[in-house]
Amino acid sequence: MITSNTTSALTSTNSTSKSANAVTPPLSVRYHPPNGFYMTQVSIGSKLYSPYLIIDSGTDMSWVQCEGCTSCFSVTGTGNYKYRESQSYRKLPCNHPLCVPKTCTGDGLYCIYNHLYLSSSSSGVVSTETFTFRTESRFRTTAEYPDLVFGCAFDNRNIPFAEGPGNVIAGVFGLDLGRQSMLVQLQAQTKLRFSYCLSWSDRSTMLQFGDDASASMRRRQSGLQTTTLERGVLDQYYVTMLGISIENQRLRINPDVFRLKLGHIGGFIVDTGCPYSFIVPVAYRILRGALVEYIAQRHSGLRPMQRGIREFDLCYNLTATPGIRYVFPSMTFHFKQADFVMRPEAVFQSFGTIRCLAMLVMHEANEPTILGAFQQTNYRFLFDGGQSLMSFVPENCA
């Protein structure tokens, strides 16, 4: 539990403590197997609408699909947000300092947003509402934050987490360092720090903030590594990427392909809102070729499938031949002063007898290389925006 001297934006309840300074309980994080996203649950408004939202360190504004949307996706369970029924809902005036960029309705009264992702978009009305954080624990901790800025989404197109039947996710919980992110709006409580540990299991883990996030990392010093965040005008979590190794073999990839260039071109970001890692084409070709060679040297009869499955292009069909133990390599991303080692099960994903490289080519021009959520599993991450640091340490998150 985090404590703070700032209480004007908060009311809280706790079955074991009546302190008015108890703030920002950790949020539960769950894996959503159909599409590989990680989600949390908060309550919104006076009616306590409680949607699942993906935790997204790659964007600032949190948004939820609202009733009356014109281009919508299906949300099982909670449905769309009935904002008209909430007594605490307000549209954000166009002259509000958090109306950034200053894009407004035709009459100039209210702020609107339009977020473009790699191949999808969300747009709607920037609004304010009361958010209630709840912790799934024996302490039943809650914390209530009024007047937080978020997006009431009315036009959502090609939203990746909504693909397929049975979608329960209604929007996004933004955690980058932009002014509209929850992390920054609540910085008196979060201190611009958060920590998480992602798991493939159906067991929930915790998204922690502020002092709680720091304490969770201090308890795990063995194997702890830290690298600096590239800051400036950028709000996402960029780190300096120097290269890639397969097992202990460094690949001949020019580090310049990962460098952040003028005009916000390229670079390398860490993004929980992206299920899989994306690698820029020149590096992906070298990486793919090295993996094919590594596997062929250890299994002479094993060749890549002519066509991959789903979105993956490097896949192997592992027949259930008795006595054969297939060996797949680990992989290391070399950051400045830190090495992020991914075990084989975080590099390749299994689909029955088929095993695929769980990384994709970044086809979009000028976009960064991305460390996605699948590759981050079984590590505890700590982001400290105030100190511009990212730390990580191996942990069994299940």
Automatic annotation (TrEMBL):
<dbReference type="Pfam" id="PF14541">
    <property type="entry name" value="TAXi_C"/>
</dbReference>
<dbReference type="InterPro" id="IPR051708">
    <property type="entry name" value="Plant_Aspart_Prot_A1"/>
</dbReference>
<protein>
    <submittedName>
        <fullName>Aspartic peptidase</fullName>
    </submittedName>
</protein>
<dbReference type="GO" id="GO:0006508">
    <property type="term" value="P:proteolysis"/>
</dbReference>
<keyword id="KW-0645">Protease</keyword>
<feature type="compositionally biased region" description="Low complexity">
    <location>
        <begin position="1"/>
        <end position="22"/>
    </location>
</feature>
<dbReference type="InterPro" id="IPR033121">
    <property type="entry name" value="PEPTIDASE_A1"/>
</dbReference>
<feature type="domain" description="Peptidase A1">
    <location>
        <begin position="38"/>
        <end position="393"/>
    </location>
</feature>
<dbReference type="Pfam" id="PF14543">
    <property type="entry name" value="TAXi_N"/>
</dbReference>
<dbReference type="InterPro" id="IPR032799">
    <property type="entry name" value="TAXi_C"/>
</dbReference>
<dbReference type="InterPro" id="IPR032861">
    <property type="entry name" value="TAXi_N"/>
</dbReference>
<dbReference type="InterPro" id="IPR021109">
    <property type="entry name" value="Peptidase_aspartic_dom_sf"/>
</dbReference>
<keyword id="KW-0378">Hydrolase</keyword>
<comment type="similarity">
    <text>Belongs to the peptidase A1 family.</text>
</comment>
<dbReference type="GO" id="GO:0008233">
    <property type="term" value="F:peptidase activity"/>
</dbReference>
<feature type="region of interest" description="Disordered">
    <location>
        <begin position="1"/>
        <end position="25"/>
    </location>
</feature>
